[in-house]
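Anyone opening a protein record will find just a pair of labelled lines. A complete record is shown below as an example:
=====
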Amino acid sequence: MKTLLLALTAILVFRLQPVLAASPDEEARFVAAAKQAFEKHDADAFVALTCWDRVPEKFKDSGKKQYARDAKQEATDITLTNPDPNEPDLVWKDTDGVSYRSNLSVVKQLKITFTPGGQFKDGTYPVGEKDGKLYLLEPAPTK
């Protein structure tokens, strides 16, 4: 009986996943907001695009400082991609002995190409979904 219940639950979750995923309009809004944040060099816009749930204060502070540095950089291309199946999320243990990972499940990655010769290398940043909205993710302790 437990196996049947588990199988039915798994089927329902996988069938509902596309319904619960962020809409194409939300994806377009998110990418446009990220592009505008770079164009205006607006660190506060990056902060607003970020999910801060369960993020310790030390990471909130360092994340906001990183956004201030990122916002100064010029981006030539910003796209939303599916997450790399081989590395869907970063997981690490900090010097405090606590394990961390993204504070929401990674559903997309924001791929940013920076202007050559700039301070930062091109990269991908994890994106999660909460209540139909996309957010940049920050580290939170694992349970």
Summary: The radius of gyration is 17 Å. Strands lie at 75-81, 91-93, 99-102, 106-114, 123-130, 133-136, 139-141.
